[in-house]
Amino acid sequence: MFGIDYSFRWRSALRALPDMLSGAWVTFETAALSMIFGVIIALLLMVMRQMNNPLARGFASTWISIARNTPSLFQIYILYFGLGSFGLHVSSWFALLAGITFNNAGYLAENFRGGLKAIPDTQMRAARSLGMNAFQAYRLIVVPQLLRIVFYPLTNQMVWAVLMTSLGVIVGLNDDLTGVTQSYNVKTFRTFEYFAIAAVLYYLIAKAIVLAARLLGWRLFRY
Amino acid sequence: MIEIENVHKSFGDLEVVKGVSLTVNKGEVVSIIGGSGSGKSTLLMCINGLEPIQQGSIRVDGTEVHARGTDLNRLRQKIGIVFQQWNAFPHLTVLENVMLAPCKVLGKSKAEAEAMAVRQLESVGLGDKLKVFPGKLSGGQQQRMAIARALAMSPDYMLFDEATSALDPQLVGEVLDTMRMLAEDGMTMVLVTHEIPFAREVSDRVAFFRDGVVHEIGTPDQVIGNPQKPETAAFLKSVI
Amino acid sequence: MFSTGFTLNDLRFMLEGAWVTLLLTFWAILLGTLVGVICGVLRALLPRATIPLAWLLDVFRSVPLLIQFVLFNSLKSIVGLNWSAFTVGCVVLGVYAAAYCTEIVRSGVLAVPLSLRRASRSLGLSYWQDLRHVVLPIATRVSFPGWLNLVLSVMKDTALVMWIGIVELLRASQTIVTRIQEPLLVLCIAGLIYYLMSWVVSRLGVQLEKRWQQND
After folding, report:
1. Fewer Cβ atoms within 10 A, N terminus or C terminus of chain C?
2. Which fold has domain B2-239?
3. Are the beta carbons of A202 and C160 separated by less than 8 Å?
4. In angstroms, what CA-CA distances link C211 with C118, C134, C204?
């Protein structure tokens, strides 16, 4: 069918595996950090949206709609190149982390809001009728149920965060999985081999996250 | 004693309770009957402060429910309420549902709360469902659990908001049995109900609500057996 | 005073980039929807037999799109396909969209209650008639919001094709930034264009949905 005039060199490509694995760890770490910050900011955005202060509300909804309506690469770009206009020069890793965090927070805030809507008001009512104060009712009744509702979207967002870290290479990051892969690629031009290995590693990270989440879910949510 | 005096309650522009006065004495069972939208359920929510009122006053054992300084959380500990939609906490087992408030609100020890919860659950016939999640129970069982949950706080008063309205007909009986048992034990109860024969059987007094006011009130035999007002008679005719 | 090296020509260059973004989105969604509907219906109707398909599609959702572009691009040169970068972009994005679309369609079909299907079969409709006139129309409505989200997310993901050398909106902006050194201004304009495109698409979607609901 096609004349394939290319000899694959898997053996030499596999020699890069240790470096790529440490790149994979950077990738995972970055994604995990972006999720932790993302969840915290998302909760803050959610609270701001409920406030009476129009400034806080406007800030939250602007954040959410920019995060959801522009490419994540664009968000990273703005942080990397745009902040330079203010004399703030950030590293590519920081721009990547901040960009993904920004993106995560926007999507998660929306998820949390949807989750909160899915818990009927009557649950709050029942809790208050038993003499619980508002804080107890939130902590003991609303939040545990919310956690279950947002657990699956949270897992998804974590997988996306891992995939998004690959964008770091475009702003010059060279120690995450894609960055390491690209450095080898530039040196040897065995593009297919190196990127295929990277693809497998990304796939494994993604699956490991889903699996871990499922196990955790079974333990946490018995109902 | 619950003393309700000239209470008005509106949702936005819609006034649903238009000046209700009613006194419920200790140990008394009072049933509130009436068509939907007559303000019965709303009044119940006002008694334990789940809904604010616009005018009038409600006193429970002399404490003004809607006064500024009232500790509603404290007050609600002695007023149990059972909702139409039972409102089980889905993430907790039956036992945990009942134990939660005694532990967290009354500050009881786990062991003490558990012993109390088991006793209450056994008395409503759920002794074999302790470790089950509410989602696995029938509506009737969930409602009995909700009753046990309210009773575990050792309340002085119990309010029932159409406790059987959302149940399948064959499940109504088991919940009514539980309520009957409670009435016979001398609990002070206010029932909003559509089960007229049941109201007649267990109540000391029956109040007929219409358009947000008490239209007729008296003993069950008077109000249900021999209504004085034509509207009461018409309502009873329509539901029986 | 405020002075800028940004010219109308630059704006035109960016709008041309935006046009490329829209074209890529269009072709990717067209391909993705065609493949996705077929795969999704198959996944719903023959869940067992199509498990391998599910695994395959899952790979496309678990590997960064950027890596997929690079891999496909190099595979293209290996097997000697003479495709333009634009075609590669469309195909990779299209397959990526298909992987998501399959799940959307599948859950849409599964959302049609069995009782409804029984009802239509009891009226004498054949398996295919039931599928064509009852199941798919309902599934379409259920799936539509998810599909619309997919369109929006593919539009944003087109930004990644710059890596294989296509000049779309973001790449066009970058080129201008390199020349006039005003990253914030240029990127804000780019962001605004993305935002507007997303807004228009989601508006159109909401209008369409409303039209359907009126008929319900």
Report:
1. N
2. Rossmann fold (3.40.50)
3. no
4. 28, 19, 11
